[in-house]
Amino acid sequence: MRDRLRSARRWVVKVGSSLLTADGKGLDHAIIEQWTTQIAALLADNRQVVLVSSGSIAEGVARLKLPKRPTRVHELQAAAAVGQMGLIRAYEAGFERYDQLTAQILLTHDDLADRRRYLNARATLSTLLTHGVLPIVNENDTVTTDEIKLGDNDTLGAQVANLIDADVLVLLTDQNGLFDKDPRSNPDAQLLERANASDPNILALAGPPGSSIGSGGMRTKILAAERAAQNGTTTVIANGREPNVLLRLRDGEPLGTMLTSDQKPLDARKRWLADHLRAKGTVTLDEGACRVLKEKGSSLLAVGVRACSGEFSRGELVSCIDKEGREVARGLTNYSAADTRKILGQSSDQFVQLLGYSGEPELVHRDNMIVFR
Ligand SMILES: Nc1ncnc2c1ncn2[C@@H]1O[C@H](COP(=O)(O)OP(=O)(O)O)[C@@H](O)[C@H]1O
Ligand SMILES: N[C@@H](CCC(=O)OP(=O)(O)O)C(=O)O
């Protein structure tokens, strides 16, 4: 299994805030130097790497001499803007030692939710990789509001992995990997060497972040691994302080936790849909509709819809839930929320009479939908 990493050509390496900084003390330049050395060696070994690095807020807090991480959004955004300068400066200096060019990419959820911008980001990243440049990605914290925030860089790492069809996503953190319980509060916790990224039981192992500076904890790492697995990408969660961790992983050493899935990878368009985090509205399906979506891969017909909430237009993303509120599928709707309310529970031969026009027979076509386990 670990051989997969030996042959992995495209790598996304995500470095968490908890690693980059000791609580509130700014960047740990010594450790940044170690990663730049390792990444430069991976690049020299004919691998392509995209680095997703957190740390802007932590560094901003230190530079602004704030007593602790602020809670107000604008304070956090100001800290991110200040800190991002230090972060990029540290990486650029580190990679200059190896004559390695770097590029800064700041992304928001909105950039990735818009198909055209998503494809643009994809093309730019590929072009940079073709030129042998190392892209360094972070969330564009200064412009994000809660609505458009990705929220944590584990998710961003998985999205970048999907964008560039990475072979491997390495999530470097301050623990040796995923344990059967949070090792900070449970000294007897056992490290899992392997796990199935789409096993719903592993999410229950994950506790909250380990420090006041980290966000998401293991939960977002497992969800990121699941997201990456939808594209056939292997994820490894490992300790960024382990000497030569990236090179030893490349050599097939069993460090950290490897998360893979036997799921069939989604095609490119469906993957984009799966990565599209926020739905504009929700439709509640009856049992029959849930069953045919899951078992037969059918399109969603209005006749199987019991309720509709939220405001959306034709072509926007809706979440399809069962009567217990579990998300069964998500997809791009052929009808606006107003029209969906008029046709729900009805068969398509009634649409002309109810709407005054005859649109597609499906509310969500199966080509524009992903169905969850
Ligand atoms: N089952 C678990 N195994 C390992 N770590 C866990 C687990 N549950 C919670 N954690 C916590 O998750 C923390 C890592 O997440 P986080 O603080 O968000 O780091 P990062 O900044 O690297 O993303 C660890 O320090 C650990 O305390
Ligand atoms: N964009 C933020 C990232 C916050 C974040 O996701 O942190 P982490 O979960 O520790 O990787 C920053 O640079 O501070």
TrEMBL record:
<protein>
    <recommendedName>
        <fullName>Glutamate 5-kinase</fullName>
        <ecNumber>2.7.2.11</ecNumber>
    </recommendedName>
</protein>
<dbReference type="GO" id="GO:0004349">
    <property type="term" value="F:glutamate 5-kinase activity"/>
</dbReference>
<dbReference type="InterPro" id="IPR002478">
    <property type="entry name" value="PUA"/>
</dbReference>
<keyword id="KW-0641">Proline biosynthesis</keyword>
<dbReference type="InterPro" id="IPR015947">
    <property type="entry name" value="PUA-like_sf"/>
</dbReference>
<dbReference type="GO" id="GO:0005524">
    <property type="term" value="F:ATP binding"/>
</dbReference>
<comment type="function">
    <text>Catalyzes the transfer of a phosphate group to glutamate to form L-glutamate 5-phosphate.</text>
</comment>
<feature type="binding site">
    <location>
        <position position="153"/>
    </location>
    <ligand>
        <name>substrate</name>
    </ligand>
</feature>
<feature type="binding site">
    <location>
        <position position="141"/>
    </location>
    <ligand>
        <name>substrate</name>
    </ligand>
</feature>
<keyword id="KW-0028">Amino-acid biosynthesis</keyword>
<dbReference type="InterPro" id="IPR019797">
    <property type="entry name" value="Glutamate_5-kinase_CS"/>
</dbReference>
<keyword id="KW-0808">Transferase</keyword>
<keyword id="KW-0418">Kinase</keyword>
<dbReference type="InterPro" id="IPR001048">
    <property type="entry name" value="Asp/Glu/Uridylate_kinase"/>
</dbReference>
<dbReference type="InterPro" id="IPR005715">
    <property type="entry name" value="Glu_5kinase/COase_Synthase"/>
</dbReference>
<keyword id="KW-0963">Cytoplasm</keyword>
<dbReference type="GO" id="GO:0003723">
    <property type="term" value="F:RNA binding"/>
</dbReference>
<dbReference type="InterPro" id="IPR041739">
    <property type="entry name" value="G5K_ProB"/>
</dbReference>
<feature type="binding site">
    <location>
        <begin position="215"/>
        <end position="221"/>
    </location>
    <ligand>
        <name>ATP</name>
    </ligand>
</feature>
<dbReference type="Pfam" id="PF01472">
    <property type="entry name" value="PUA"/>
</dbReference>
<dbReference type="InterPro" id="IPR036974">
    <property type="entry name" value="PUA_sf"/>
</dbReference>
<feature type="domain" description="PUA">
    <location>
        <begin position="281"/>
        <end position="364"/>
    </location>
</feature>
<feature type="binding site">
    <location>
        <position position="14"/>
    </location>
    <ligand>
        <name>ATP</name>
    </ligand>
</feature>
<dbReference type="InterPro" id="IPR001057">
    <property type="entry name" value="Glu/AcGlu_kinase"/>
</dbReference>
<keyword id="KW-0547">Nucleotide-binding</keyword>
<dbReference type="GO" id="GO:0005829">
    <property type="term" value="C:cytosol"/>
</dbReference>
<dbReference type="InterPro" id="IPR011529">
    <property type="entry name" value="Glu_5kinase"/>
</dbReference>
<keyword id="KW-0067">ATP-binding</keyword>
<dbReference type="GO" id="GO:0055129">
    <property type="term" value="P:L-proline biosynthetic process"/>
</dbReference>
<comment type="pathway">
    <text>Amino-acid biosynthesis; L-proline biosynthesis; L-glutamate 5-semialdehyde from L-glutamate: step 1/2.</text>
</comment>
<feature type="binding site">
    <location>
        <position position="54"/>
    </location>
    <ligand>
        <name>substrate</name>
    </ligand>
</feature>
<dbReference type="InterPro" id="IPR036393">
    <property type="entry name" value="AceGlu_kinase-like_sf"/>
</dbReference>
<feature type="binding site">
    <location>
        <begin position="173"/>
        <end position="174"/>
    </location>
    <ligand>
        <name>ATP</name>
    </ligand>
</feature>
<comment type="similarity">
    <text>Belongs to the glutamate 5-kinase family.</text>
</comment>
<dbReference type="Pfam" id="PF00696">
    <property type="entry name" value="AA_kinase"/>
</dbReference>
